[in-house]
Every structure is written in structure tokens, then in C-alpha cells.
Specification:
Blueprint (H helix, E strand, L loop, with lengths): L8 E5 H13 L14 E3 L12 E4 L5 E9 L20 H6 L9 E10 L11 E4 L1
Length: 134
């Protein structure tokens, strides 16, 4: 348990990764796949970085509610290619994430930690439609 995160879920939107990749590409850096950030819930169809301004996520059937609680400070693992262990650029994406950080704390942040508020023993499925609440 020494390496366990404080929260059971990490939520990232596809649009947020797309924006990060656009910024990386604009500064002549390679783009990154979602697995570099290791989320266990990926959402699509929302504006970039909207996960930072959301309190709760629930599916439209209200089977479960996730509470988005804290932004994830990123570590060096994001610099490592998950397929081969290679580190092509030890500074990216951490340098970019620090530069675009909208939070008062210094560092590179990306994704939102979440907890299950209700819906124990329910299944989160690919394709679930979600409702954001702020």
C-alpha cells in the first residue's frame, strides 16, 4: 500500500489530452498517448479541462456518482513510454503541465482524482452517458 494513490479513481477527458498534445506539438515535442497518465476513467465529449471545474460525475441512469476531489500532481512516470520503458525527453510533459498549471500550487497537474459517492457494486461501462455537476 505504500505506492497506492489516495483516491481510487483518476478521471481525464480526451479533450484535455488533445489540448496538451497540441501544446506539446507546437513546441516541437512528441505527443503522448493517454496511457502515460494512467487514468482509469476517460471521458469524451466535454470541453478541455472541464474535469477541473466539476464536483460530481454521474451516469444518466443515476446508478453511480463519482465525486471529483483533487487534481493529480504528475510525476516522472509520465515521461516514460509505457510500451518499452524508454525516456525520450525527461522534461516533458512535466515542463508543459507546470507552465499551464491554473492552480496556486507549483508543479505539473493533469487529471482529477475521484471517489465513489454512491453506486457501490454498480458497473461503470464504456459508453455510459455522464452528467456533470459543478
Amino acid at each position: 500500500t505504500a505506492l497506492a494513490d489516495a483516491y481510487p479513481y483518476l478521471v481525464i477527458s480526451e479533450s484535455s489530452l488533445k489540448k496538451v498534445n497540441e501544446l506539446l506539438k507546437d513546441s516541437d515535442n512528441e505527443t503522448l498517448p493517454m496511457n502515460r497518465f494512467r487514468p482509469n476513467i476517460v471521458i469524451k465529449g466535454v470541453p478541455e479541462f472541464s474535469e477541473y471545474n466539476t464536483n460530481d460525475l454521474q451516469n444518466t441512469n443515476r446508478d453511480y456518482i463519482l465525486g471529483l476531489r483533487k487534481t493529480c500532481q504528475r510525476c516522472k512516470i509520465t515521461t516514460i513510454d509505457q510500451a518499452n520503458g524508454e525516456i525520450r525527453n525527461p522534461k516533458q510533459p512535466l515542463k508543459l503541465l507546470s507552465a499551464i498549471n491554473p492552480f496556486p500550487e507549483a508543479g505539473g497537474y493533469f487529471g482529477q482524482y475521484a471517489v465513489l459517492i454512491s453506486g457501490e457494486n454498480r458497473t461503470i461501462k464504456i459508453g455510459d452517458e455522464l452528467i456533470y455537476s459543478t
